[in-house]
Amino acid sequence: MGFYGDTILPRIINVACGTALTKPQREQACAGLTGEVVEIGFGSGLNIPFYPPSVSRVMAIEPADTAWHIARKRVEQSSVPVERHGLDGQSLPLDDASCDSALSTWTLCTIPDVTAALHEVRRVLKPGGTFHFVEHGLAPDAKVQAWQHRLNPLQQKLFGGCNLDRPIAQLIEDAGFTISTIDEFYEKGSPKFLGALSLGVATRA
Q1: What pTM value is reported for the model?
Q2: What distance in Å separates the CA atoms of residue 52 and residue 8, rounded to the nearest whole number?
Q3: DSSP state of 49
Q4: Model confidence over 60-77: pLDDT tens digits?
Q5: Cα–Cα distance between 165 and 127 in angstroms, integer?
Q6: Which domains does the chain show, CATH number per domain?
Q7: What DSSP letter does each residue of 56-105 carry, written as one string?
Q8: What share of the chain is helix, strand, coil (3-state, %, to 5)?
Q9: What are the pLDDT digits (tens) for 86-113?
Q10: How far apart are the first and last CA of the chain?
Q11: What phi, psi does 162 have (nearest 5°)?
Q12: Which of 131, 68, 70 is CA-nearest to residue 104?
């Protein structure tokens, strides 16, 4: 990942994604998680306070050692056991149909091969298992989309490959999920090109 990606960027993300603005979305995304949960893009553990009591264990997928180090205190204080279970969301070190739920928050924008990652999530979920997500991506308005396309190369350089214009719902459905609930909206207090959010739950058929 390089020095910036592995050491500096996780600290920036910990601050930028840990604001009060994100807490309601994190809480909603975590609601309904149950049993054995795989969380891709675990980061610095910002979702830990929102895991419901129905979660028995979280298997964290996180490539950056610095992010895992920042998460240490949150992990130690968690009422839910959290274990680092891999580095790459594109290749999960988990058995087929071994997880009850999966979680992704502000992660699908950055994974290089997002299609492979979503197929991996589907593979490790049990039939009927749920994928909970909140992601920023392609806006619903053409004018905002145009700005997203213009700014995307700069966004990728500054934020470790983060994309502004991925069509989140389409990517999830194309990977073989059925979206049961989704709310697409602009996050209050964020610029529209960055704050076009998709929050929902999809089911593995």
Answers
A1: 0.95
A2: 31
A3: G
A4: 999 999 999 999 999 999
A5: 30
A6: 2-204 (3.40.50.150)
A7: EEEEEE---HHHHHHHHHHHHH-SS-EEEEES-TTS--S-TT-EEEEEEE
A8: 40, 25, 35
A9: 999 999 999 999 999 999 999 999 999 9
A10: 34
A11: -65, 135
A12: 131
